[in-house]
From TrEMBL:
SUPFAM superfamilies: Amidase signature (AS) enzymes
Gene assigned in the entry: gatA
Domain Amidase: residue ranges: 1-441
Database matches in Pfam families: Amidase
Key words, A-Z: ATP-binding, Ligase, Nucleotide-binding, Protein biosynthesis
Enzyme class: ligase
Catalytic reaction equation(s): L-glutamyl-tRNA(Gln) + L-glutamine + ATP + H2O = L-glutaminyl-tRNA(Gln) + L-glutamate + ADP + phosphate + H(+)
Gene3D superfamilies listed in its UniProt record: Amidase signature (AS) domain (3.90.1300.10)
Subunit and interaction comment: Heterotrimer of A, B and C subunits.
Family, similarity comment: Belongs to the amidase family. GatA subfamily.
Enzyme Commission numbers on file: 6.3.5.7
Molecular function (Gene Ontology), one example: glutaminyl-tRNA synthase (glutamine-hydrolyzing) activity
Protein name in UniProt: Glutamyl-tRNA(Gln) amidotransferase subunit A
Length: 448
């Protein structure tokens, strides 16, 4: 823990950590030492990890990357945080992210940008940018992330690490500051599939009293099938994931990875996910709709920021929210409120829900022909800080390959598979059917 805290301090310019507290971390480490000494079995005993600042923690501030929650301390730990601690993990601190997990570049954080350690002039990806950078720059052996539309997979891809988002409902959302509740899912980000398997085993499991969408599926040991053969594994390659728009360097790295899989005994199957492009408008209706509802709790009354000067109650709400929320968050609240409003609900929100169902059905069709699906995580390598300027559409379009799996609630991974333009890492995306995390992790492990 001391080693990683020292590295975190020495590389503070990367912007990965938002909070550390050596006394708290070392106290947790000593407690873990005692558990080890007493012979207690704990799968992660003494393993230091850091948490995305979307997870609430009682021992560290929790901001969600927003000014709205500056200095906020939660009276409880998120279930994911608690479960990892029960498995013996030691918390190094909290990691930077896009405000309320809304973004693809980490540039939407109220606490400054995070720099990609492979090239500091580039973004780390988002929204779990701090998590990806902490692992890639060895400021933590592993980290937690959250993935609503790609926020574990895309930064993992851009920073050359491994990350997995489980099936929606396998990890409890309790204590994860909500963005889009029907999509939000927690998962680990680490150096390898093996490390991810260990962490995921501790994270998953039912939480019926605290998260009504948590599934009644028991925790699994995801390391159990690592090392299994890939002989005969059918890898589905969706033609829509290789359409124009995918940069040639990314394409080359993905093609090489697929060839490598064939050498490992897997069989390549051409498939189609015909509604891939629709995932962008569908997601950017549903996610803001849910966000506009979830974020209504930040009204300056119970917790978080409250404007100093105001006349009446309504003005207090307005000023608090105008001051506390960043521009992208405000944009999404407005879009979400609009698509849910009378007269537009049917035209946008309901239509989006219908297409979401069709996207999920397309995957079920595809999984009749293959065991896992493979393709790029993003159409390009990490772009330059500021490159997308004030154009949110440029960010949204880059989410095209991660959004379909999120809308369907499927498990998905990113594993490093080579380098593209500027020597930047490229990630291979692997998507599995519901509850096929072990299969995904085995396929990833064999490649690594
Ligand atoms: N980039 C997507 C968005 O901005 C996904 C973010 C996420 O998965 N949290 O909403």
């Amino acid at each position: 823990a001391r080693h990683f805290l020292a590295r975190a301090a020495a590389h503070a310019d990367l912007g990965a950590y938002l909070a550390t507290d050596e006394a708290v971390t070392l106290a947790q480490a000593r407690a873990a030492d005692q558990r080890i000494a007493s012979g207690e079995a704990a799968s992660l005993a003494g393993v230091p990890i850091a948490h995305k600042d979307i997870f609430v923690t009682k021992d560290f501030p929790s901001t969600a990357g927003s000014k709205m929650l500056e200095g906020y301390r939660s009276p409880f730990d998120a279930t994911v945080v608690r479960k990892l601690a029960e498995a013996g993990a030691v918390t190094l601190g909290k990691l930077n992210c896009d405000e309320f997990a809304m973004g693809s570049s980490n540039e939407n954080s109220a606490y400054g940008v995070v720099r990609n350690p492979w090239d500091r002039s580039r973004i780390p990806g988002g929204s779990s940018g701090g998590s990806a950078v902490a692992v890639a720059a060895r400021l933590a052996p592993a980290a937690t992330g959250t993935d609503t539309g790609g926020s574990i997979r895309q930064p993992a891809s851009f920073c050359g690490i491994t990350g997995i988002k489980p099936t929606y409902g396998r990890a409890s959302r309790y204590g994860m500051i909500a963005y889009a509740s029907s999509l939000d899912q927690a998962g680990p980000m680490a150096r390898s599939a093996e490390d991810c398997a260990l962490l995921l085993s501790a994270i998953c499991g039912p939480d019926p009293d605290r998260d009504s969408t948590s599934l009644d599926v028991p925790a699994e040991d995801f390391t159990r099938s690592l090392g299994g053969s890939l002989e005969g594994l059918r890898i589905g390659v969706p033609k829509e994931f290789f359409a124009e728009g995918v940069a040639p360097d990314v394409r080359a790295a993905i093609d090489a990875a697929l060839a490598q899989y064939e050498k490992l005994g897997a069989r390549r199957v051409e498939i189609s996910l015909p509604r891939t492009e629709m995932a962008i408008p569908v997601y950017y209706v549903i996610a803001p709709a849910e966000a506009s509802s979830n974020l209504s709790r930040f009204d300056g009354v119970k917790f978080g920021h409250r404007a100093k000067d105001y006349g009446d109650l309504l003005e207090m709400y307005k000023r608090t929210r105008a001051e506390g929320f960043g521009l992208e968050v405000q944009r999404r609240i407005m879009v979400g409120t609009y698509v849910l409003s009378h007269g537009y609900y049917d035209a946008y929100y309901l239509q989006a829900q219908k297409i979401r169902r069709m996207i999920a059905d397309d995957f079920q069709q595809a999984f009749r022909q293959c065991d896992v699906i493979a393709g790029p995580v993003a159409p390009s390598v990490a772009w330059k800080l500021g490159e997308h300027g004030n154009d949110p559409m440029a960010d949204y379009l880059a989410d095209i390959f991660t959004l379909p799996g999120s809308l369907a609630g499927l498990p998905g991974m990113s594993i490093p598979c080579g380098f593209g333009a500027g020597g930047m890492p490229v990630g291979l995306q692997l998507l599995g059917n519901y509850f096929q995390e072990a299969k995904l992790l085995n396929a990833a492990h064999a490649f690594q």
